[in-house]
């Protein structure tokens, strides 16, 4: 394992030194305790020599084994290689294992040597033949090795798993096994959840790791298990304070605690180390440290990703809130609030606006009513493309451009033409729809053009109908095609007539037909007029407009919505 970290990180060196001094001090305490606890040698009787008579037989030794065991006789071929193996003996634990695994099949008595591979043919395709050959040839113990095979039972094939050991026993071989399923399950659990464990003896630096220890920590499989001092030396500098605090709590305060650990060989991997003290007796010294390691890299990355997403969402919400406040302030500054200023023209006006709450609270709807020097009244309602600050900015550009152009005293056809040229010159994103109208009070005449916008609606005698289209139909939206000509239509207004101009956000449904949207608006306008027939005051007109918007509004709306109501009254 690596030694002290190089470089100018003096704090990391101090932390590492502190960890190693803590471990050395505990080792001294353990050795001192062990010396004091050792009985005196004086007065002790000399041990007698072991008796040679009465030694157990091989059969008795076989039966004394607590695990299933078979005594095997290898059968070599002409070339000396093992071609078969005969079972010449077994113990009671082996019989009990067979009876448990094959409860419906009686275990036959073996009267003589039995070929192991003939009785269990699937064993020949497992690691067992290789283990037997090596144990016979090298005279060395083999295993433990996980061996999995299939045997026929009364109710069908039985899958068997065991941890097998094979060792020389005179001229024969001794095969023992333990239930392998719990061991394999433990190994699988370590692999699946990337968990391992280890226990360190603080008296001599001994280490007993689990099978997945090297894999979870990212250590080479052939590397010796690290001592706690080695582990600290391999840790990244930012891991050392937590590692020291954990060892201090475990060793001196005898508490269970944990820390995050990263190794310099695998800095991208984060491991959670949870440790507890190991004591020989309650209240005694801590003789060891037992720890569980869990690879939490994926969890940590998910948490970091979630935290980043949450921070980004907060930033976006704050950004949207700021844009909404700026856009709303801009809207309030540029859009009119009608009172009785149009009474001299024989008109009343009321407006209702509903923002799109999903898009910073505001959109591109706009409207305007301005007195002109030639005695006309300019009335307009439009819908700039987009949402938020960009839409409000475009809305303000078009609105102020129209206000300036109107002072040329040109008809609405020419004003719409110029406004389209202005939008086209502003860029491909600067598109909008609009109704541009001029009211001639001396004739009670409303002349209007349409640039891709829903037609105005006339309410007369309680019935809502769309105003007839201009000759040639509605024109293209503003900003689509330079040089587009627009024509105007005229409507003579009577006292009590109400003209409604609205944006498509009030009627549009996802996937709906525009004609159906228009019919829905006409039906709602008529019904609202019959239910909430406005009185002669402007406030009554506003209540009617509010009622109409409420009837059409709902969670289906995906845009901001505006309704402008103009009513012909007797001039003041």
Keywords for this entry:
single chain; 572 residues; alpha+beta; 6-stranded antiparallel beta sheet; 14 helices; 21 strands; 35% helix; 29% strand
Radius of gyration: 46 Å
Mean pLDDT: 86
Structural class: alpha+beta
Helicity range of the residues?
25-40%
Main sheet overview? 6 strands, antiparallel
Number of helices: 14
Strand order of the largest sheet: 3-2-1-6-5-4
Indicate the low-confidence ranges by residue numbers.
none
Strand content: 25-35%
Principal-axes shape call = elongated
Distance between the termini: 98 Å
Number of strands: 21
Structural notes for this entry:
The structure is a single chain. The protein is α+β, with helices and mostly antiparallel strands and 572 residues long. The protein is 35% helix and 29% strand. It is built from 14 helices and 21 strands. The chain has a six-stranded antiparallel sheet with strand order 3-2-1-6-5-4. Strand 5 (156-169) and strand 6 form a beta hairpin. The radius of gyration is 46 Å and the shape is elongated. The model has no long low-confidence stretch (mean pLDDT 86).
């Amino acid at each position: 394992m690596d030694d002290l970290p190089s470089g100018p990180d003096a704090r990391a060196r101090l932390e590492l030194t502190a960890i190693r001094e803590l471990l050395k001090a505990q080792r001294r305490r353990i050795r001192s305790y062990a010396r004091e606890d050792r009985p005196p040698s004086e007065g002790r009787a000399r041990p007698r020599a072991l008796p040679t008579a009465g030694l157990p037989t091989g059969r008795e030794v076989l039966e004394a084994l607590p695990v299933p065991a078979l005594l095997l006789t290898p059968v070599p071929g002409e070339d000396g290689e093992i071609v078969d193996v005969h079972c010449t003996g077994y113990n009671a634990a082996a019989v009990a294992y067979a009876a448990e695994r094959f409860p419906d099949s009686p275990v036959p008595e073996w009267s003589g040597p039995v070929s192991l591979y003939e009785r269990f043919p699937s064993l020949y395709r497992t690691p067992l033949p290789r283990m037997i050959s090596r144990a016979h040839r090298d005279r060395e113990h083999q295993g433990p090795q996980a061996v999995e095979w299939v045997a026929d039972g009364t109710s069908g094939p039985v899958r068997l798993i065991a941890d097998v050991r094979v060792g020389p026993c005179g001229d024969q071989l001794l095969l023992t096994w333990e239930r392998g399923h719990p061991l394999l399950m433990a190994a699988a659990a370590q692999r699946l959840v990337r968990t391992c464990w280890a226990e360190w003896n603080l008296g001599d630096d001994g280490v007993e790791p689990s099978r997945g220890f090297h894999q979870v920590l990212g250590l080479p499989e052939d590397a010796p298990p690290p001592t706690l001092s080695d582990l600290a030396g391999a840790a990244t500098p930012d891991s050392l304070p937590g590692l020291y605090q954990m060892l201090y709590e475990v060793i001196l305060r005898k508490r269970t605690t944990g820390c995050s650990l990263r190794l310099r060989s695998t800095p991208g991997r984060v491991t959670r180390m949870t440790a507890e003290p190991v004591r020989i007796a309650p209240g005694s010294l801590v003789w060891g440290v037992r720890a569980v390691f869990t690879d939490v890299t994926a969890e940590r990355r998910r948490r970091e990703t979630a935290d980043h997403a949450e921070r980004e969402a907060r930033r976006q919400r704050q950004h949207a809130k700021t844009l909404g406040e700026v856009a709303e302030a801009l809207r309030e500054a540029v859009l009119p609030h009608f009172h009785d200023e149009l009474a001299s023209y024989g008109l009343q006006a009321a407006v209702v606006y509903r923002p799109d709450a999903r898009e910073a609270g505001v959109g591109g709807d706009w409207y305007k009513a301005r007195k002109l020097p030639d005695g006309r009244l300019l009335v307009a309602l439009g819908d700039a493309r987009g949402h938020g600050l960009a839409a409000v900015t475009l809305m303000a550009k078009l609105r102020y451009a129209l206000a300036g152009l109107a002072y040329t005293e040109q008809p609405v056809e020419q004003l719409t033409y110029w406004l389209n040229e202005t939008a086209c010159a502003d860029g491909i994103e600067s598109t909008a729809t609009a109704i541009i109208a001029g009211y001639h009070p001396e004739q009670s005449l409303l002349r209007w053009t349409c640039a891709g916008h829903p037609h105005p609606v006339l309410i007369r005698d309680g019935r809502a109908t769309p105003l007839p289209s201009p000759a040639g139909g509605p024109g293209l939206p503003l900003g689509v095609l330079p040089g587009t000509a627009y024509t105007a239509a005229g409507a003579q207004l009577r006292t009590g007539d109400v003209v409604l101009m609205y944006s498509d956000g009030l009627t549009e449904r996802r996937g709906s037909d525009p004609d159906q949207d228009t019919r829905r608006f006409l039906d709602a306008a008529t019904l609202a007029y019959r239910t909430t027939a406005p009185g002669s005051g402007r406030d009554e007109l506003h209540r009617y407009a509010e009622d109409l918007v409420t009837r059409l509004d709902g969670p289906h709306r995906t845009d901001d919505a505006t309704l402008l109501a103009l009513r012909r009254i007797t001039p003041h």
